[in-house]
Specification:
Elements: H1 10-46, H2 51-74, H3 76-98, H4 110-126, H5 147-153, H6 157-210, H7 218-235, H8 237-257, H9 264-290
Length: 291
Amino acid sequence: MEMQEEDFPALYNSADSASLKAQNHYFGALRCYLFLLILAAFVSYAWPTNVYGAISSAALFLITLGILVWLKVRKPEDVWYNGRAVAESVKTRTWRWIMKSEPYDEDVPEEQAQRELLNDLKAILDQNRSLSHVLEWTPDLGEAISEKMKNIRSLPWSQRLETYIRDRVDNQSVWYSKKSQLNKRLAKRWFVVSIVLHSTAVLLLLYRIKEPSSSLPIEVIATAAGAVLTWVQAKKHNELNSSYALAAHEIVLIKGESVSVKDEPQLSDFVINSEAAFSREHTQWIARKSV
């Protein structure tokens, strides 16, 4: 019995969707802003004395100003971070409930356990009222407590442990490992691009010393180099590579501890400790993104 994304509470799916949309909007606006800056610098270089060139360049700079204002007013990065925080909090609570971990353990009557989970989800929602304008609900998002959640919770502890290892621990391990490798490749790629742009600017400057009258796109190259630096700082590939790699190793250690689980109480403790580790990494991620 496999736990899919759509089997989590509707609040998780809504917050996850809002976070991903805000992330795409943020990086899309930033990408457009940097591209238009480079384009404006190129237009200014290519048609320095042309009236239409000057108007076009000014218009491009006005558009970039508008993007900056939009980012400042709408703050999509706040929706991105807060939506992710809500989604991860709901996911942690869901797994603890499914695994009958405290405070939803087997000693609690089923109706009370469901009521406590619903109260916890309401508390998470109440603490994040700022997301009310982006949290949507449609029938596709599911219910607060899905049938899959109830079915897994009703399984014997050994089968629940297998489900937790496969659908939570292994899932997180693969995700962090892939993300670590992706950010490592992107960090190298952008480093090479940055080196090429800076080297080109230096060579053009040296050539201008030899030929002072030559017209060279030094300002365009410098703008492009600055745009690459801004993009790299926003994406933080090196930091994420290190963080995700460390998280992947920690998850491997967490999985190793599962062999000592021999009964229901030990499963509860194992899940609590595992979810605390997942939450710690996410909290650190939020802190890095907020710097």
